[in-house]
Model the fold of this input.
Amino acid sequence: ARVLTQFLVFLYCKCLWRGLKFVIRKVTGRCELQRICYNNKPGARRTLKIESSLKCSKNELLQSAVSVHPDAVEKTIDDIMALKKINPDTNPQLAISLQASLFQIVGYRNLVLEVEKLRMEPYDCENPKHEEMLMKLWKALRPESPLTGRISKQWCEIGFQGSDPKTDFRGMGLLGLHNLLYFAEHDKATALQVLHDSLQPKHSKMSKADWEKKKFDKAIGYSFAIVGINITDLAYSLLMSGALKTHLYNVAPEMPSLVHFQQTFCYLMQEFHRFWIEEDPCDIMEFNRVRTKFHKRILKQLKNPDMALCPHFTASDLHLVNL
Ligand SMILES: *[C@@H]1O[C@H](CO)[C@@H](O)[C@H](O)[C@H]1NC(C)=O
Done:
């Protein structure tokens, strides 16, 4: 009986809400989509609301709008304007705003598919393209010291586990390699700094005497490439859960794409590194704890609809990417 009461209350609230929307529409002469655009600045604030309004709509056209192909966005907006009986000539800005938000929404959905595809593609040492990327990664991170062979202990210098990196990509497939290479080539100074620090036995504010004492203790740095692949996992789960929407809707005014995801990865690498030093773990056994805490912190930041995760990419960089 309690469940039934709850259900009836729910139904009642729902009807009340629909009735309220109807009244608001009659009074203001605006539909919900119009009000959202009118009351929220562009970016995550507006697009998140548009997205949930469309998804919750009982109209077929509005509901399916969020999953149209990017090529069909303009036509879909025309259809919505017609459905809502909004004259595009007297409301030119509305169509533009709705279109921008819908491009972001369908762009995010496509990005999810693209990222998933890369993750599902295993590293294949028979594939020359994969091998070439791996070699490029080495060159970007170790420009001064050429590899002595494809199978070499040198791979450990950039934080792989053994003499052949291919097995380390298992969890994240080609996505891990794409991210690491992007970081090494496009955010080079940061990547080299992070790699350098990760190779130090301990990153803390120890005095010189303490440092000497600790010198022969086990290394307390971390494996750069392995952590990079793991942070790829973190970025991937943020994307899949939808948590990255706030960030991507704020930094990609046209359409979130793979480049934005890779830039997010660069940011997460830099921030994780900073966080690792701050947390001052005893050794790598604490990785799980530090990672969980870091993940929670990022999730909390992403609850803020004004959040954008990339302070070290300037707006002009992002603009170039969008062109
Ligand atoms: C990353 O680390 C976490 C926690 O240690 C672990 O659960 C997860 O499976 C790792 N992911 C990858 C791809 O190695």
In short: The CA atoms of residues 37 and 97 lie 7 Å apart. The radius of gyration is 24 Å. The pocket of 2-acetamido-2-deoxy-beta-D-glucopyranose is lined by residues 171-172, 229-230, 233, 287-288, 291 (CB under 6 Å).
